[in-house]
Design goal:
The complex is a heterodimer of chains A (172) and B (132).
Chain A: E1 3-11, E2 21-28, H1 31-45, E3 53-61, E4 70-80, E5 83-93, H2 96-111, E6 118-126, H3 134-137, E7 145-146
Antiparallel strand pairs in A: 1-2, 1-3, 4-5, 4-6
Chain B: E1 7-8, E2 11-15, E3 24-30, E4 35-40, E5 43-49, E6 53-59, H1 68-78, H2 80-86, H3 88-101, H4 104-131
Antiparallel strand pairs in B: 2-3, 2-6, 3-4, 4-5
Classes of the chains: A alpha+beta (172), B alpha+beta (132).
């Protein structure tokens, strides 16, 4: 399961010089990975190395137990096989980590993107009218109705489940 | 083949899996094509996969993501759950529920009555056959 962490770190202070503290929001599967990503990004942005720096705090931001669907906009930078691509993607989910997890899944499927090739630039909850992707806006219609093509299977007790059935299944 | 039952806001459905199996819920919002937000009498609001619900022919007219109080009020006003319970499907479910609760003696009584009924039917059928 994906988690959201907030990590603070800085260069180890030497002498009297004041050191800048850097704070970053990281999506990762565990704390170890989150710290590793923190150093990876910090190295790219500032002249700070793990050997001469320290992590001050790692906090997990737990998702609230939410029961309303929200729209999330994700800005990502993705290292494809032939170059770097910037992308804006939208997802509909109940939690932010859910939306980010959806993104990783979709990127893996559509672009064979591994976890480390994707850099999340920003994740924001966005209002319905700001949504651009039809995949998300389709669900904003409150009169939306669609049938269940595959139907929902009634899960029965295994005791009564046979190899053959006299009746053809009703699939809708 | 025309579809009659849709995943839509206000659709009365049954949970078909887990601890809450058999409970009646209403779809309040659609997260995406696979997940919906549901709530019902005795079922707190939650996200559920569409695979875990069975759609009924009944629909409550409610606004999207309605609050619990208003939902229960609308359900009562429009008598949606009642309508479902009075339908043959609802009756069958109630019947099955009652059958589950039977004691050993009651089950015996049912079997006995069923035998008696079969006897009467067979007798009448025999007479009809004899006439032919």
């Amino acid at each position: 399961m994906l988690h959201q962490f907030v990590i603070c770190g800085r260069k180890v202070p030497t002498g009297t010089e004041a050191t800048q503290i850097y704070k970053m929001r990281i999506f990762a599967y565990n704390e170890v990975q989150a710290k590793s990503r923190f150093w990876y990004f910090l190295k790219k942005l500032r002249k700070v190395k793990r050997t001469a720096a320290e992590i001050l705090d790692v906090k997990e931001i737990k998702d609230k137990k939410r029961t309303s669907a929200r729209n999330y906009g994700l800005w990502i930078r993705f290292q494809s096989r032939s170059g770097v691509l910037n992308m804006y993607r939208e997802y509909r989910d109940v939690t932010m980590t859910g939306a980010v997890a959806q993104m990783y899944g979709e990127m893996a499927g559509q672009h064979s993107a591994r976890f480390d090739t994707i850099q999340i630039v920003d994740v924001k909850e966005i209002a319905a009218k700001e949504c651009k992707r039809e995949k998300v806006t389709a669900y904003h219609d409150s009169k939306l109705a669609f049938p269940l093509l595959r139907g929902s299977k009634v899960v029965r007790n295994n005791k009564y489940r046979g190899t053959f059935s006299a009746k053809r299944p009703n699939l809708f | 083949m025309v579809f009659q039952r849709f995943v839509q806001i206000g659709r009365l459905s049954l949970i078909n899996f887990g601890k809450q199996q058999g409970k009646v819920v209403v779809i309040l919002d659609i997260v995406d094509k696979n997940r919906v937000i549901v709530e019902g009498p005795g079922v707190p609001r939650r996200v559920l996969s569409v695979k875990r619900i069975t759609l009924t022919p009944h629909v409550v007219s409610i606004p999207r993501g309605v609050r619990s109080g208003l939902l229960l009020k609308k359900l009562e006003e429009q008598k949606t759950v009642e309508l479902f319970q009075q339908s043959s499907w609802g009756k069958k479910l109630a019947h099955m529920e009652r059958r589950k609760e039977l004691t050993d003696f009651e089950r015996f009584k049912v079997a006995h009555l069923k035998r008696q009924r079969a006897m009467l039917i067979n007798k009448a059928m025999g007479k009809l056959r004899a006439k032919k």
